[in-house]
Amino acid sequence: MTTAYYHSSIGPICIESEHDRITALYLDKQASLTKAMPVLYHDSLIQQAFSQLDEYFSGNRFAFDLPLAPKGTEFQKRVWDALLNIPYGKTCSYGDIAGQIGQPQASRAVGGACHRNPIMIIIPCHRVVGANGSMGGFGAGLFVKESLLDLEAHHVIHSESSFR
Questions:
Q1: What is the pLDDT of residues 50-102, one digit of tens each?
Q2: Which residues are catalytically annotated?
Q3: How far apart are the C-alpha atoms of 142 and 67, rounded to whole Å?
Q4: Boundaries of every domain in the chain
Q5: How many other CB atoms are found less than 10 A from the CB of residue 86?
Q6: Crossing angle, helix 74-83 and helix 107-115, to 10 degrees?
Q7: Residue 103 has pLDDT above 80, yes or no
Q8: Domain 74-161 indexed as CATH 1.10.10.10
Q9: Contacts of 10 (CB under 8 A, 6+ apart)
Q10: pTM of structure
Q11: Rg of the chain in Å (alpha carbons)
Q12: Cross-strand pairs, 119
């Protein structure tokens, strides 16, 4: 397993990979920004992830193109696959995702799967909100969820205005 840290506007992000696939990406609240963060230039997958995160945070990437291998139950993996279809800058409800995976009564279980998403941002669980538009929960905290949604909304508005 390879582990590296990425400095982001929302804090230090830990990225883990195994067998040429990203297995985890999470906000590491325990990591200090002054702590020596390993930089693995020889690992092309981590380097590619860093590059795509740079593009995402600068508003130049709207979808990730990285090999993923999240670890979870079959149900969780179906939910995470559905999350990959939520467009940048858009949101949908837990019930919407439950319907997409063919289990319309499983919105609470979808919420649990979102909370256990091991590859945040890339698998965009932050784009899932309550049916009434409420934020719901987020494993990295509501401030981070709101920050990511605000970042995407800001860049969608600017990209749409540049096409006029």
A1: 999 999 999 999 999 999 999 999 999 999 999 999 999 999 999 999 999 99
A2: 125
A3: 27
A4: 2-57, 74-161
A5: 19
A6: 80
A7: yes
A8: yes
A9: 27, 140, 144, 147, 148
A10: 0.88
A11: 16
A12: 25
